[in-house]
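A quick aside before the break. I want you to see a complete sequence-to-structure record at least once, exactly as it would be stored in a machine-readable document. Don't worry about memorizing anything.
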Amino acid sequence: MTTTTKRGDAPARTSGAVPDLRYSEAEEDLRGVVRGLFADRSPWPALLARIETSEPVDPALWRALATDLGCAGLLIPEDLGGAGASCREAAVVAEETGYAVAPVPYLGSSVVATAALLGSRDELLPGLASGEVTAALAVPFAQPPPRTVHAAARPGGVRVVLQEPGDSSAVMRLSGQVTGVADALTAEMLLVPADGRPFGLYAVEVAADGVTMAPVVSLDATRPLADLVFDRAPGRVVALNEDAAASVLAGLTVGTAMLASEQLGVAQRCLDMTLAYVKERR
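That is the input. The structure line, written in tokens, reads:
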């Protein structure tokens, strides 16, 4: 027997435990608020003008989305300053960032980096939840998510090198490079997977000695990419061994799903514009 759900009710489940994929009334309300923000703060003329400048990301728009609306902390538990929501709510915001082609680091910071830190309940999460901190996972944007935890620990472009005198046990030195990292140019923190004994995930301040980055021309002018170089840069241990691999896997897996939601928003905008043109064409 199949149960039904009215719009606005909690997602229903059938006897076969199949979820109702329709958005709830609360989720549609969230959509309306986010769409209204983007329509007001990032209309097409302003967006096109911004991407021709050296600052394609809009800091004021990001503060409004991340801090004022609280969207930066959707995936973060309430006891860490977040909203304690789920990927359903995050997907709504991702769709709307795609619909508006919004120049904000939502995918890189509030989704990918955040999902990578949730398992360890890292100290960066409260800052990410408030929007005061932005972060990026230092993997190539074109890299697909690995299929297993073991594959997530595969050799990359960064390695752990010898510590320097005075370094604490929680700090390791990293050297190497990563190409085509999304949202790194606007991040304060980088989450860097690094080979070594053991494999680990490390938090590196963008402003730290030994970190350099160079902008890369991106097909999507609203999502700048950067090549990163680490030269004995200090990194704080976030997770090691299988925990680190699981963190990388979580960030890339959730990020892939939310990127699909974002692209759905782009497609919906294209459809809406096409329909509007057909109705007005003579």
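Two observations worth writing down. The chain has two domains: 25-123+250-280, 137-240. The first strand starts at residue 135 and ends at 137. We'll return to this after the break.
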